[in-house]
Amino acid sequence: MQKISAILFMVFKKTVAGAFFLYGANVLIQQTGLHIVMNPFTAFLAGFLGLPGILSLAAIHFFIFR
User: Fold this and answer.
1) Which residues cross the membrane (predicted)?
2) What is the 3-state secondary structure (H, E, C) of the chain?
3) With contact defined as beta carbons under 8 Å apart, do 39 and 64 qualify?
């Protein structure tokens, strides 16, 4: 039971960190007109993958919506 709660806590921690990373990235790139949507999935992806995850989300958004 402790292992499951530790894993869930790690996932929660990475999701919160990813939300902060996405917010920071959105603040930095708002002048270019690019905006990465913040939702639990993108926050988890950004938290789990870090900077490469944020860059891949930005690239996906750029190629799909431009």
Assistant:
1) 41-65
2) CHHHHHHHHHHHHHHHHHHHHHHHHHHHHHHHCCCCCCCHHHHHHHHHHCHHHHHHHHHHHHHHHC
3) no
Model confidence pLDDT, tens digit, residues 10-57: 999 999 999 999 999 999 988 888 888 899 999 999 999 999 999 998
- Residue whose C-alpha is closest to residue 37's, from 19, 49, 50, 51: 19
52 φ/ψ angles, rounded to the nearest 5 degrees: -60, -35
Q: Which residue has the tokens 């530790």?
A: 6
Structural domain count of the chain: 1
